């Protein structure tokens, strides 16, 4: 009888974490950041059928990277949880914090179970408040831990480099166009330090807009509106560049 191969629990968990991280890093990044009127979600996603960003409830939205079938199952479970809790108790009882706790329990159980592989997903759950100070953004890695984020956050792809870029440039009170420009610039930076060009067709953009009069604050930014926002910010940047350049000296000199 042969001796069974032994792997320490610490090594087994480290291997599972490395497996999940590699799967997540292969996905295209998602950026979430606060602006003056709410929370902006920008994902590099050329597909118009498979969404990385979705509405969960009135003021709550969900973004994810990794394996689509896995985070889609989590999204559907979150919608069912929110609908049931809102119907059973009150709509105000559905919060991003409660939803993040549910996701954390699910991901943690799967990650620690030896019977199945860990989910190759990283989630963001965000809730827009009555003011910027009331906004909530939670990041949930593959192991089910919860990270409370403020200002901006990036997941998937070269998230560390993108997060560093956002931390240096994100400011409170940015307009939607300014926040969108910053998000697109951060996504366009590759791991080698170069820059790519991202068009509206390659982006999935949505907002939680606190100024919307209806109860549901989630809105997708599509088509002409997205193109106008990108063009408006590009035109503003060109105007600023021209104003900063030294004016030509047209005065005549006397002989």
Can you walk through the features of this model?
The chain is α+β, with helices and mostly antiparallel strands and 255 residues long. It has helices spanning 9-25, 68-88, 96-112, 159-169, 176-187, 223-244, and strands at residues 30-35, 38-44, 53-55, 60-66, 121-127, 136-140, 147-149, 152-155, 203-209, 218-221. The strands form two sheets. A five-stranded antiparallel β-sheet has the order 8-1-2-9-10. Strand 5 (121-127) and strand 6 (136-140) form a beta hairpin. Helix 4 runs antiparallel to helix 5 (176-187) and helix 5 packs across helix 6 (223-244). The chain starts with 8 loop residues before the first helix and ends in an 11-residue tail after the last helix. The model is unreliable at 247-255 (pLDDT under 50).
Topology (SSEs and partners):
Blueprint: H1 9-25, E1 30-35, E2 38-44, E3 53-55, E4 60-66, H2 68-88, H3 96-112, E5 121-127, E6 136-140, E7 147-149, E8 152-155, H4 159-169, H5 176-187, E9 203-209, E10 218-221, H6 223-244
Antiparallel strand pairs: 1-2, 1-8, 2-9, 3-4, 4-5, 5-6, 6-7, 9-10
Helix pairs in contact: 4-5, 5-6
Q: Indicate the proportion of strand residues.
A: 15-25%
Low-confidence stretches: 247-255
Q: Roughly how many Å apart are the termini?
A: 107 Å
The helix-and-strand class reads alpha+beta
Number of strand segments? 10
Major sheet characteristics = 5 strands, antiparallel
> Counting H and I runs of at least 4 residues, what is the number of helices?
6
Radius of gyration: 22 Å
């Amino acid at each position: 009888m042969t001796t069974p191969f032994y792997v320490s629990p610490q090594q087994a968990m480290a291997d599972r974490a490395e497996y999940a991280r590699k799967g997540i890093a292969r996905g295209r990044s998602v950026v979430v950041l606060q602006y003056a009127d709410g929370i902006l979600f920008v994902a590099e996603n050329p597909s118009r059928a498979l969404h990385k960003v979705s509405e969960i409830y009135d003021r709550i939205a969900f973004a994810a990277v990794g394996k689509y079938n896995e985070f889609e199952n989590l999204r559907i479970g979150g919608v069912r949880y929110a609908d049931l809790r809102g119907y059973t108790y009150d709509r105000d009882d559905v919060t991003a914090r409660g939803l993040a706790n549910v996701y954390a329990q699910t991901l943690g159980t799967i990650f620690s179970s030896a019977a199945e592989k860990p989910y190759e997903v990283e989630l963001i759950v965000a809730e827009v408040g009555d003011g910027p100070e009331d906004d909530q953004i939670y990041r949930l890695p593959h192991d089910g831990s919860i990270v409370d984020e403020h200002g901006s956050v990036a997941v998937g792809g070269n998230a560390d480099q993108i997060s560093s870029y956002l931390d240096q440039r994100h400011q409170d009170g940015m307009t939607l166009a300014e926040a969108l420009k910053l998000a697109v610039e951060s996504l366009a930076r590759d791991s080698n330090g170069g820059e790519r060009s991202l068009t509206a067709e390659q982006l999935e953009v949505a907002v939680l807009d606190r100024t919307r009069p209806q109860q549901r604050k989630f809105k997708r930014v599509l088509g002409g509106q997205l193109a106008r926002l990108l063009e408006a910010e590009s035109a503003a940047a060109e105007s600023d560049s021209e104003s900063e350049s030294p004016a030509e000296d047209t005065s005549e000199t006397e002989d």
